[in-house]
Amino acid sequence: MGSSWIVDASQTFDLDLNLDSFRLQAPKDVPRGVQINFMGVENKASVKDETSDLKAELERMKEENRRLTETLSAVYENYITLQSRLGDVTSMTSEKDTMLAMLSSRKRKAENNREVKSDVVDIDGSINCNFNNNNINVESSSSEDSCKKIKEDPKTMVSRVHVRTEPSDTSLVVKDGYQWRKYGQKVTRDNPCPRAYFRCSYAPACPVKKKVQRSAEDPSVLVATYEGEHNHPNCTKSETRAASNKGASPVLISSSSASPTKTVTLDLTRPNSSQVAVVGAHHREIDSPEFQRHLVEQMASSLTRDPGFTSALAAAISGRIMRY
DNA sequence: CGAGTTTGACCTGCGC
DNA sequence: GCGCAGGTCAAACTCG
Q1: Measured in angstroms, what separates residue A91's CA from nucleotide C8's C1'?
Q2: Which residues contact A137 (CB under 8 A, 6 or more apart)?
Q3: How far apart are CA A310 and CA A308, in angstroms?
Q4: Alpha-carbon separation of residue A10 from A13, A94, A248, A323 (angstroms)
Q5: Nearest nucleotide over every DNA/RNA strand to the A197 CA, judged by C1'
Q6: Nearest protein residue to B13's C1' (by CA)?
Q7: Pick from A65-74, A260-269, A290-299: least confident
Q8: Distance from first CA to last CA of chain A, Å, rounded?
Q9: Which residue has the higher pLDDT, A69 or A226?
Q10: What pTM was computed for the model?
Q11: On chain B, which bases lie within 7 A of the protein's CB atoms?
């Protein structure tokens, strides 16, 4: 069984670390007692003031600590929720693989009729993370599909991906991280939109082919049909990311049937915002500590790339330094 | 100049 | 055998 699917995922991380409370700490807020100590003056009254100020400060720090703990637990809760949703997605994939294996004996025409319009992916520039909806469209069939050459090779897998594009986008390009070379275009009988034929050009010996055609029912939907398996790793992570930054690339999760491990490429990139990208992880390792550590590292690096976050952090740190 | 795209011609399989 | 349709080839063309 082989499949390749694209996920429309919409989930925003809202990290409110209450950094404003740090930023608002101006030097004038420094307790009087502390200022007096800086001046080298000591008396009983000042010691009393200092004690009460320190107590107040301690209370304030406690409150701040409590708020931060709450925020942290909220973030952790979001992370757990997302992780469980990711688990749902991967289990859905295996379920669909099983279902599609049973359906694979159907004739091609019957399969074409079975295509569901609603199971499409939105590519509108912003990547939304919604693992609960059914925007994952997987159509996969074994070698009995369409082509006789495929029939001769039982290991050749066919999978179909539906991708929604901008109405203004007339190109037949589905960005999936691989490098494709177009070798033909044909107008088919049942669809006025031409079908484009692509070969994987990353490796000369790579047998994978891709057909891309607009849906006859909904021209804004591109139907990409993949045949075969790549005999090389996903060529360029950077390319995928670059494409994502342009807002034209879907979140892609692809799997290869012959291989016991599945390659999961999750790119939750959103333009001008924090990014979370997990590339090249095996979906069976999602629960592993290494994967989770990698996820946290990715989140951390995403936050550090966010100028807003770094400036807020810098303001908080400089505020602290000014105070002490 | 090389790599990628376009496009008409050609090949092959299938149904009648 | 013939016609049709899908798939592929390759020369011409485009673009960086």
Answers
A1: 38
A2: A5, A6, A116, A119, A120, A121, A160, A161, A162
A3: 6
A4: 10, 22, 15, 41
A5: C7
A6: A148
A7: A260-269
A8: 63
A9: A226
A10: 0.43
A11: 4-9, 13-14
The C-alpha atoms of residue A100 and residue A4 are separated, in whole angstroms, by 12
d(CA A12, CA A192): 39
**Which of the nucleotides in strand C have any atom less than 7 Å away from a protein CB atom?**
4-10
Q: What is the pLDDT of residue A221?
A: 82
| The predicted structure's pLDDT at residue A202 | 74
Token output for A196: 């484009």
- Rounded distance between C-alpha atoms, residue A282 and residue A276, angstroms: 17
Lowest mean pLDDT segment, chosen from A81-95, A96-110, A192-206, A265-279: A265-279
* Stretch A52-64: mean pLDDT: 84
How does A217-254 read in b/e, with b if 16+ C-beta sit within 10 Å? eeebbbbbbbbbbbeeebbeeebbbebbeeebbbbbbb
The answer to whether strand B lies under 7 Å from the CB of residue A308 is: no
